[in-house]
Every structure is written in C-alpha cells, then in structure tokens.
C-alpha cells in the first residue's frame, strides 16, 4: 500500500484524508474490519426484511410516505425509485473536489457498519472514486436535512449506471459508459440501500473540511499582510509584545501577534510613529487590533475543526443498524451542527476581509498614510495608482458581508410537513466557498498595496522577512511602484501568489514556521 491510499475503516476518517481524496485523487481502500462490519449489518437487514412487520427504510416508503408497507417484490424498485426521484438537482455543476468529498464521506459512513449496505455496494463506491469517475451534481437540491439528498442521489445514480458523470479525462458522458470502460458493474440496490446512500451531511461536511484547510492558510497570510501594512505605515510593533497578549489569553490572538512580530523582526521602518510633526500616540484600530481580530477568527476555525472531527467520527443515516440487532429511526441526519459553524466561518471571513480593506484604504489616503503619496501613485493626478484596486477590494468585502448572513437561521418545511425544520447547511457551505475565494483576493490586494508602500519608504530598511516577500512577489509577476499600467494582471498575480501559498513560503525561511 502506498502513501496515496486512504484506508476506510469503521471508526471514521480525518480532515486530511478528505482533502487527500477530494483534491489530490488519493485512492481509497476498504479495511477488512469495515468489510466484516458491513456483512454483519447486512445480515440484520436481511433478517428484518424477511419479517412481516414494517421497518422504516427496509419495507416502507420514505418521508411522508413512510406509512405504506412495501411488499418484497416491489422493494428493489422502491430503492431504485428513491434514487431516481431524489436526483432532482438543478443549476450549475458542483466542483469536482466537492463531489469527490461527498462520495468519500458517504462511503465512510457506509463502512461504519451502521447502514446495512452490502459490502459489494461499498466496494463499488470505492471503485468509482478510484476510477476518477465524478457524478454530475447540481448546485441546488439540498436543504441540509435528511442528508444532502439531491446531491447524494446524483452520486447514487452513477453507481446504478444511470445519469451523467465526468470521466477521468474531464469529459462528461453517460455514467453507464464510464462504468463499463472502467470495468465496474452497476449496482442493483436492495432493501434499505437506496436510502442509505442518500441520507447524510456529507456534502456540507466535505466543504467544511476544505474551507477549514483554506482558511488556516489565509489567516497566516493575513497576519503577514497586516504586518507589512504596519511596517509601510511606520507603525509600532510594541503592541505585539507577548506579555500584552498573555493577559488576554485567547490562543488565536497570541498566535497572530507572534506571527506579526516574527515578520517585523529587525525592521528599520517600525517605531517612527512618534517622529512626525504630529506624533501618533498609537496606531489605528485596523493596525493595532489586527491580532485580536485575526486571532478570534483563528479560534473560530479551531471550534469548527472540533465540530468537523466529531462529524467525521459519526455514522449519519436513518434508520441505523445498532450492534444489538435493532434498526432504529433517529434524527442524526439533521445538519445543524455543521451548518452553524459554516455560517460562523463566513462571518469571521467577512470581518477579516473588512479589517484588511480598512488597512489598504489607510495606505492609499495621504491624510492617514504618514507620508506616502496619494493612492501610492507615481505622479498623483497624472497617475491614479491603486485607487481602483481598493474599489475592487471593497466590492469583494461588500459581497462577503452579504454572504455572512446565516443560512442556518432559515428553514423551509418540506415533505408535506414531515420534514418541517431543516438546516440549510448545504447553502451555508456553498456561500462559504465563495467567501473563502473572495477573502483570498482581498488579502492579495492588501499584499499588493503594502509591498508597494514599503518600497516607497526610501532610505529605510524593511524587515528581512518583508524583503523576502517583496523579492518573491516581484519574481512571481507582482510588479512594484511606477507609472500607471494595466492593473488587472498585477492583481491576478498577487491573487495567485497568496492562493498558491507562496506568500507564506516566502516568509518562513526567514521567520521559521508560522502558526
């Protein structure tokens, strides 16, 4: 077994495994323990299916139709029908990495031995992932309760050899053709299996895992850009002293302050704030309080990770097969725990973007930038400098504030009022992905402005870490001060520099590892 294989057992999985499969095409393999647990649970389902008493999901209809007992000769049709009828998504296709996370996490729950799915069905799920076949899943269709129903149904449809999917070459074809080309036999669903493939928080959970990983990198990047802005504004690093943060011991705050202090070590620009005609007693909040704001976001990410890890250790299905042989209905499919933290992350991302934009604006305003030229322009008036870069940043921040409105505070009843309260967790996850994307661009604009501001401080020597950032950014196509030019390519280069982790990579050889 190589390092690119993720083993799926009975005890859940990790965020790192989710990202390895979703983003890096890691292979998946069912453990012997999982295969044995699947077989034991299936024996229980088969025994219940043979009894005359109705059991939800095994010998009944679903949702508001659960009162109908389904005779044995109709049960295979029942399972096919739930997949076909629930594959009702609409709108644009969902990204490949999200669909792979969705499939992997449903396999994780199936492998727990609490769903009653046959081992052969679980193996087919693994085979489809390993073949690089990605079902076509649409943007709309999940209310985040009773699972991410429509998205998971489109995935189950592919297992049946129906609907459309994307092949390993990126071309969308009928799923049956792709399975045949990969040597995979479509599944013929039996009692409970259709329901078990649809009933989980897998889509919203997969997007949460990826958002946490992305935000961790972005918060480190934001600590760096905040330090660069402080330096460009000739601010004081004294507010970053560890003893000041020890007396308000939020872990994230201390980590952010330490990161900023490491970036600013040996700077020749800091500490000049009292040498002006009107000396500053202290820096503005957007500079001075950066560790407090960045740190609070870090602590929120830590809480979200705790929720994600609990969910990754869960078996989310209804009904569930218990070790004592009971098959019991439950409400564990409700997405509230995941939905809440997805919304919480959208809020902190919006606020991080907001404070970064305020620092950028301060760099561009000659009345507040402490000697920098208006808009960091070469010849202000003839040149507009970064005036409209800040407009773009402000537009991104404004959208992020709208995206911070919680989806989980909304609920629309469904299924003839049987499912009368839902989490909207899928919607929370989708808007968080947009927020994370926007945050990357916002940080890139601050990076662009701050590095230009530092370079315009002639006669003063920046911190070694700042010099390393500027050199790496310029090598990556993020140009420095000068007359006006076509700005969009510069901003795109700055975006790529942050998005690809090059900002952190430029700093850490000087500072050592940052939190």
From TrEMBL:
One of its GO terms (cellular component) is cytoplasm. One of its GO terms (biological process) is cinnamic acid biosynthetic process. Pathway: Amino-acid degradation; L-histidine degradation into L-glutamate; N-formimidoyl-L-glutamate from L-histidine: step 1/3. It is found in: Cytoplasm. InterPro entries: Aromatic_Lyase, Fumarase/histidase_N, HutH, L-Aspartase-like, Phe/His_NH3-lyase_AS. It is an enzyme of class 4 (lyase). Contains an active site 4-methylidene-imidazol-5-one (MIO), which is formed autocatalytically by cyclization and dehydration of residues Cys-Ser-Gly. There is a cross-link at residues 145-147 (5-imidazolinone (Ala-Gly)). This is Histidine ammonia-lyase. It comes from Streptomyces hundungensis. The lineage of its organism: Bacteria, Bacillati, Actinomycetota, Actinomycetes, Kitasatosporales. The gene is hutH.
